[in-house]
Amino acid sequence: MSQLLDSPYFQLFFTIGAALMAISVLIVRLKASRRPVTIRKIIIPPLGMATGFLMFIEPQMRIPWIWVIVAFAAGWFLFSYPLVRTTHFETVDGEVYAKRSPGFAYILIGLLAVRLALHEVVEQYISVLQTGSVFFILAFGMILRWRLFMYTKFKAIQH
């Protein structure tokens, strides 16, 4: 099993999969700006993503606590920052909409590029499974801060 996970084909498949996921997120986010924002639409992504913590049941996925803290902090402070800075809302006919930012697509693509580059570097030092764990924690920190920001901004504009 470890030979399969360490093969270049698996890593290529993973990279292509990550790129396809990023493109799908980009398309969904751009389409979502045409519909009103609701609290449910803000809180569901981090709640859904939280189910990913079940991966840590598998011992090979576990990482040291310091890695968890560093990855979460990197997601919270660094990777979420551009998303927070480009997320704006507007009220149209009493409903709240996300303003479409011209730089949003470029930011998502840039975050993906940085993530993939870091993934290749980190993967040289730790196992593929642990790399997945580190980047899951990083992504969770990023989305959690971004969605908490969206929630507070949504509540402020709603009143």
UniProtKB/TrEMBL annotation:
The keyword Membrane applies. It comes from the Bacteria. Keywords: Membrane, Transmembrane, Transmembrane helix. The chain crosses the membrane at residues 12-30, 42-59, 65-84, 104-122, 128-146. PANTHER family: PROTEIN CCDC. This is Membrane protein. It comes from Paenibacillus apis. The lineage of its organism: Bacteria, Bacillati, Bacillota, Bacilli, Bacillales.
